[in-house]
Design goal:
alpha+beta; Immunoglobulin-like
């Protein structure tokens, strides 16, 4: 009986020690961040947005969908506090692409229209001050 009690106590003590090490101090603190992304002409961008910790800083990347210029992260998938490199990838719908192509039919002497910019890299410094809005305007 002594061995059974000792074994059970060892298991309970070991479990308590393991669980004690899984507190808030060991967990990555992600931020619930939301905001908007607009193109230089004011159009709202659809695609994706990724927050990568700035060079030399630890932490996970965080990626969310951009839908009609809006994105949202929660505490389970958001970026961490600190400086970040932000990558915005724009997706043009098939309908929008066809409309742009039909509106810009080049003449024989004119140059074909330039492809629209599809990716931007920006910087953002996220603070853990309770306000987690990050609105971005992309450069041409």
């Amino acid at each position: 009986m002594y061995c059974t009690q000792f074994g059970l106590m060892s298991i309970l003590l070991g479990s308590a020690l393991l669980l004690g090490g899984c507190g808030k101090g060991n967990r990555i603190e992600r931020l619930p961040v939301s905001g908007s992304v607009s193109a230089p002409d004011g159009d709202l961008v659809s695609g994706s947005i990724t927050f990568l910790p700035a060079e030399g800083r630890p932490g996970p990347a965080a990626t969310a969908n951009l839908v009609d210029g809006r994105y949202r992260f929660d505490r389970s998938n958001g970026p961490t506090a600190g400086p970040h490199r932000v990558i915005v990838n724009r997706i043009i719908s098939k309908r929008e692409g066809l409309e742009n192509r039909n509106a810009k039919q080049p003449t024989e002497s004119a140059k074909p229209p330039a492809d629209p910019k599809m990716q931007w890299t920006l910087s953002a410094d996220l603070t853990d001050d309770g306000i987690h809005k990050c609105n971005l305007t992309l450069s041409p």
